Amino acid sequence: MQFFLDTANLDQIREVADLGLLDGVTTNPTIMSREGGDWREQAARICELVDGPVSLEVIATNHEAMIKEAKDLVSFGPNVVVKIPMIAEGLKALRELTERGIKTNVTLVFSPAQALLAAKLGATYVSPFVGRLDGLSQSGMEAVEQMRTIFDNYDFSTKILVASVRHPLHVLESGLIGADVITLPYSTIMQLVQHPLTDSGLAAFLADWEAFQKK
Ligand code: E4P
């Protein structure tokens, strides 16, 4: 399973890359706005820094304007993946971008049927938002499981990119289901590293070793 980082923050990107865990980055308008400043400069820096796919999202909601924006976004680097919202106009844009060979990430996907539509139109990635579904008392991971079954039934090459991740259990379940990619907030990656028994175990080993040296 590939790990993408769900951020536009350069320090977080560098830190996760240094851990060797960074396979790509996803952004959205909210995430970009958090960094402030000139979004174009920020997007260019991210694309340069990341050795892997970088999702940049269109703002337009009609397909002609989405395609125009997509052409601009891909100029930021060869690793750009254009993020398109799962709306009817988005599907029209998706079809054309697929024909042009532009990589796409269909975002704001909440049902397996929506994922099927995106896969039929050749999306590179679909992004089910599991945390937001859980927040409505619907199972995000159950939706991902059904997407996995549908994609496998028909040999779709579209990758399932689990998004809106809230905690390490989402990572475990994504792995068990066989999701292709998961995009994680920086805090969740750090939570994955830690375990209290690792910390207490290491402290005990070091204390025992120190006592042994003094004998
Ligand atoms: C995915 O690409 C989105 O950027 C993201 O995961 C949305 O998550 P949220 O529900 O935390 O906003």
Automatic annotation (TrEMBL):
EC number: 2.2.1.2
Active site location: K83
Biological processes per GO annotation: carbohydrate metabolic process; ketone catabolic process; pentose-phosphate shunt
Subcellular location: Cytoplasm
CDD domains xrefs: Transaldolase_FSA
Organism encoding this protein: Pseudodesulfovibrio indicus
Gene that encodes it: tal
Similarity section: Belongs to the transaldolase family. Type 3B subfamily.
Keyword Kinase listed: no
Protein name stated in the entry: Probable transaldolase
